[in-house]
UniProtKB/TrEMBL annotation:
All copies of domain Smr, residue ranges: 629-705
Organism: Fagus sylvatica (Beechnut)
Keywords, in A-Z order: Repeat
PPR repeats: 220-254, 255-289, 290-324, 325-359, 360-394, 395-429, 430-464
Source species taxonomy: Eukaryota, Viridiplantae, Streptophyta, Embryophyta, Tracheophyta
SMART domains, A to Z: SMR (SM00463)
NCBIfam families associated with the record: PPR
One Pfam family hit: TPR_24
The family this protein is said to belong to: Belongs to the PPR family. P subfamily.
Superkingdom, natural source: Eukaryota
Annotated protein name in UniProt: Smr domain-containing protein
Signal peptide positions on this chain: none
Length: 755
């Protein structure tokens, strides 16, 4: 009989004259179709198909759609059964699906539905479009109340259809619905985020997450885990960490799979304490850490220098029955090597090979170079040999490291063997390798071999002037004059060299090298060595030597005044290329001239050097306030000459032109202060000595300049006692000038040829 409960049939009166009287329907609500009373007064008989009376009484009144939620059986109210109501709703929805016709049919239902009916109907209908149509019709009814279970079923249907736009739209409806009615939708809120996160809808899921957070709704553990997993898989660990912070504040815990993602991400991002805390928490909650968790902690802790923790995790991993990988061995060995713990690195190296792993090229290189640099050459060479046997070709860097360390320890045979092996392999040694090897050969006094290496260095395209000069300086410092002359002849081919097997010279003597030899001559204490050094200077045939010799001859031989002679020499210098070298030469030459008592010649050299702006900031005239001379960057001899010459200039300006500054300063620095002060004290100067400056008032200096002894001193005299000069020379003048050479590092003369 379906929904109508019982078939209602009006009995036919026994009077044969009865003919179809007019009929009006009466409703439970008390109304009827003609506006009269809704009560039933006559007896009604209910018959079956055979005409037998089933029941006699006042009858069952009809239902008014949308008003009544029961029927009257006589004077008794009987509610509709939920199952019948749900069945009728499902029947209507499945027939009409969606649209105005569906809504019309739902409006005609002969009972008042409830949210329970709607929820139960949604469970049966399944079709998401039909479910949404029924739900939206229900929302417009006066009896509608927001229902979390109802929303969950709708979201389930949309998710099955992969309709994520529909999910987002319905989510926005639900947020408005919940806020207007003050009803929580805990399950449906979380279900939305989980579905969107699993579908990798990153921005939408995070937006929904923030809306739920702002609304104050509780977020469950599964939702947090799904969001964290999404962001970690998308390579956005810091966003995942932000969500984890919210999760921690809410007192929620990670699940096993999220631990596996979270710990490596925290470790790789450098948040090691947080990663280790989660690692401990994971074990306490009886989750078994996977290999990736152990691997990430071992690697990150090792790289951060936390080697004890790294090794502890490594040992713990093996306790879980997990086997270290080759990558883990490499990471651990690299960490221990970088920390300088080579013994532990070597133990891991042996353990790795016993485990059946073959070290890669990078690891071989690391072991060889680290042990070589630490002086453990036996271990380094053993690993180097294994590396070659394994079929790896060492890099120039590895060869150079081994070669330079053998050279530094004076092992000529091993160094030369490595050099020959390197060149035979077609590898090009670097400048530092050649320099180390040449220095070793020079110290071992192997002139012929050094010359061979120098020529090969030149053939590789390197500029060899500096290296050749350095070898020469080794012989000069060692007092090996004969070897120095042999090397010099080889360098300059000035005479038939003893190394006559070589066709052409390897290098020429430059101004820096000449000056370095001259600096040794200035410091020389023995006459015999002075003669040898002078012979070396002569053998260079450098123009600076001709100039220095010309300074010591008379004007008749020079055929020009000394000042003109000096200017002519300095005009021939290429200041763009040799400015630093020229400044070095002036400093050493003035030392030599002062020690030799050649004061006037020294003043000429200083005057011309200043004219050519080799010392542009030495003298400063600050109008009437202060005049100063800065000699901090000068040698002892140059400083003394500069002070005398500059004070002479100050005197002329003050006496002849009447310009008197407030004060005069001599900026000496702590090193030259004593020497300059002693020189000026010999003529009772007014200059007072402070930490780095000698200063005096202009008026006092003016009075001092008027004394005849001062005039004589400034014009002709500079004390040149050895006790004033020599006690500072060794510190002020190193034997070479690396700071000069570094200004213009040697460049290859030609590109390496392609073999």
């Amino acid at each position: 009989m379906g929904f109508n409960l019982i078939s209602q049939k009006l009995s036919v009166p026994k009077d044969p004259n009865f003919v179809n009287p007019s009929f009006s329907r009466n409703y439970c609500s008390g109304k009827n179709s003609d506006g009269g009373s809704g009560e039933w007064t006559e007896e009604i008989e209910y018959l079956d198909e055979s005409g037998s009376v089933i029941y006699s009484g006042k009858g069952v009144r009809s239902v008014e759609p949308g008003v009544d939620d029961h029927v009257m059986v006589g004077g008794l109210k009987k509610p509709f059964l939920n199952a019948s109501a749900v069945a009728k709703i499902v029947e209507v929805v499945k027939r009409w699906k969606w649209g105005p016709e569906l809504e019309t049919q739902l409006d005609k239902l002969q009972f008042v539905p409830s949210m329970t009916h709607i929820t139960q109907s949604l469970k049966v209908i399944k079709d998401s479009d039909a479910c949404l149509s029924l739900f939206r019709w229900a929302k417009r009814q006066s009896w509608y109340l927001p229902n979390d279970e109802c929303y969950v079923m709708l979201f389930d249907g949309l998710n099955q259809n992969r309709d994520f736009d529909g999910i987002q739209s319905l989510f926005d409806e639900m947020v408005g619905d919940s806020s207007n009615n003050g009803i929580s939708s805990f399950t449906s809120y979380n279900r939305v985020i989980q579905y969107l996160a699993k579908a990798e809808k990153l921005e939408v899921s995070f937006c929904c997450f923030k809306k739920i957070q702002d609304s104050g709704c509780k977020i469950d553990v599964q939702t947090y885990n799904s969001l964290i997993t999404l962001f970690l898989n998308k390579g956005l660990p810091y966003k995942a960490f932000e969500i984890y912070g919210s999760m921690e504040a809410a007192g929620c815990l990670l699940d096993g799979s999220t631990y596996e993602l979270m710990i490596p991400s925290l470790a790789k991002s450098g948040r090691l304490d947080a990663a280790f805390k989660l690692f401990q928490e994971m074990k306490e909650r009886n989750f078994r850490p996977g290999f990736n968790v152990f691997s990430s902690l071992v690697d990150s802790m090792g790289k951060a220098g936390r080697l004890d923790t790294s090794m502890k995790v490594y040992m713990e991993m093996q306790g879980y029955g997990l086997r270290p990988s080759a990558t883990m061995y490499v990471s651990l060995i690299e960490s221990y090597v970088k920390a300088g713990k080579l013994d532990a690195a070597l133990r891991l190296w042996d353990e790795m090979k016993k485990a059946g792993f073959r070290p890669n090229f990078g690891l071989y290189t690391l072991i060889v170079e680290s042990h070589a640099k630490s002086g453990k050459l036996d271990i380094a060479m053993s690993a180097f040999t294994d590396m070659e046997k394994a079929g790896f070709l060492p890099t120039p860097s590895t060869y150079s490291c081994l070669l330079e360390m053998h050279a530094a320890t004076g092992q000529v045979d091993s160094a030369m063997k490595l050099y020959n092996s390197m060149t035979n392999a077609g590898l090009r040694p670097g400048l530092s390798t050649y320099t180390s090897l040449l220095t070793l050969l020079a110290n071992k006094k192997l002139v012929d071999v050094a010359a061979k290496i120098l020529l090969e260095m030149k053939a590789m395209g390197f500029s060899v002037d500096v290296s050749a000069s350095d070898v020469l300086m080794v012989y000069i410092k060692d007092g090996s004059v004969d070897l120095a002359l042999r090397w010099l002849r080889f360098m300059g081919s000035s005479a038939k060299p003893l190394l006559e097997t070589y066709v052409s010279s390897a290098a020429k003597v430059d101004l820096i090298l000449y000056t370095s030899i001259l600096a040794h001559l200035v410091r020389c204490q023995e006459e015999e060595n002075e003669k040898h050094l002078m012979s070396i200077l002569s053998a260079t045939k450098h123009k600076a030597h001709s100039f220095m010799c010309g300074l010591f001859t008379g004007p008749e031989q020079r055929k020009q005044p000394v000042l003109s002679f000096v200017r002519e020499f300095f005009q021939g210098i290429d200041y763009e290329l040799e400015e630093g070298a020229a400044r070095y030469f002036v400093n050493v030459l003035l030392n030599y001239l002062v020690l030799m008592g050649q004061i006037n010649r020294a003043r000429c050299v200083w005057k011309v050097a200043y004219e050519n702006k080799l010392f542009p900031k030495a003298i400063v005239f600050d109008q009437h306030i202060a005049w100063s001379l800065d000699v901090r960057n000068l040698s002892v001899g140059a400083a003394l000459v500069a002070v005398a010459h500059t004070l002479h200039r100050f005197r002329k300006r003050m006496l002849y032109y009447g310009v008197v500054p407030r004060r005069i300063k001599l900026v000496t620095g702590p090193t030259l202060k004593i020497v300059v002060a002693q020189m000026l004290n010999s003529v009772e100067s007014p200059f007072e000595v402070s930490k780095v400056v000698l200063r005096a008032p202009g008026d006092s200096v003016m009075e001092w300049f008027k004394k005849p002894i001062v005039q004589q001193f400034l014009l002709n005299e500079i004390p040149s006692r050895a006790d004033i000069l020599l006690h500072k020379l060794n510190t002020l003048f190193p034997s070479s000038a690396p700071e000069i050479r570094s200004l213009s590092p040697p460049k290859p003369l030609m590109a390496r040829r392609t073999m």
